[in-house]
């Protein structure tokens, strides 16, 4: 009998539902919330309200696209955390109600674990080589920047992480300073294609071991703009492509320097990237070039599986289903990573 997982993701500002059958993705529907753009960042209260409006139509569309009836679902997998509590509550409550109504099992999923396992999403007819254990994952999102060793689907060890801002935050905050729209990462990426990455230099952190820091870069970026604006009030408008290209190059260099160190320290050559910033073209090109140079095998997830999506929650739910890792109706959301396991 088939194992059919309904995945639900509502941790931040994307409402998403996906269906995974026997490890293969059948549908992945994402409703992004445009309302936050005008505020330059996610407004938690508005996010929860939008999830509440979106959740039923999104789940309905995912089941319909997959050609699966709700009573055929073996388990509903949902993001328990980390994320915004009000947003998580919508997905958690929906999943519990769905499980009660249909008799499906309930499976809680750690959002970051799911970003990593997004590398295992398969589609029928488009099968790809999957990462082999042990592998390293550079997990780079709006909230996290970590280097993680995966020894199997469930054994992970964080060997490096940011001590302040995340890489995605560095993109978003610097973009905001330039007056670009939110979220800034994709906008910087687009402008960077037309710019010179050597036009400006921003300071790189000097942090021990495999840890990261991005708050100094943000300050260095801000000071460069402030100084240049004194001489030329049009400085930002006239230099957007070069500023974006130089900023992106600095962030990519910071990220890859530590990954090279991590590879040397562990001897691991299977490399994955995950999280929203894994969509960045500069980072993807750097990973491909490094794979050539260092003899790594680099796995780059498809764009639609880098930012928040329910297919990654569904595939993680599938692996948990096979291990019988189910949750009870008492489960509550966990806003912080530290408050939950995987
Ligand atoms: O994983 P994600 O969708 O949400 C979190 O869990 O945080 O990541 C969102 C982050 C944002 O900071 C966004 O600016 C960044 O990913 N991002 C990018 C790109 N696409 C999304 N950053 C750089 N280049 C991109 N192409
Ligand atoms: Zn995420």
Written overview of the protein:
It is a single chain. By secondary structure, this protein is α/β, with parallel strands linked by helices. The protein folds into 2 domains: 4-127 and 305-322, ATPase, nucleotide binding domain (Nucleotidyltransferase, domain 5, 2-Layer Sandwich), CATH 3.30.420; 135-267, Nucleotidyltransferase, domain 5 (2-Layer Sandwich). Helices cover 42% and strands 18% of the residues. The protein is built from 10 helices and 10 strands. It has helices at 44-66, 85-102, 111-117, 167-177, 184-192, 215-231, 235-238, 240-266, 281-294, 310-322, and strands at residues 4-9, 14-21, 24-32, 75-81, 105-110, 135-140, 145-150, 156-161, 270-274, 297-299. Strands 3-2-1-4-5 form a 5-stranded mixed β-sheet, with helices on both faces. Strands 8-7-6-9-10 form a 5-stranded mixed β-sheet, sandwiched between helices. Strand 6 (135-140) and strand 7 form a beta hairpin. Helix 5 (184-192) crosses helix 8 (240-266). The longest helix has 27 residues, at 240-266. It is globular. The model has no long low-confidence stretch (mean pLDDT 96). Residues 12, 141-143, 168, 171-172, 183-186, 189, 275-277, 279-280, 307-308 line the site of 5'-O-[(R)-(carboxyoxy)(hydroxy)phosphoryl]adenosine (KG4). 5'-O-[(R)-(carboxyoxy)(hydroxy)phosphoryl]adenosine is lined by residues 12, 141-143, 168, 171-172, 183-186, 189, 275-277, 279-280, 307-308.
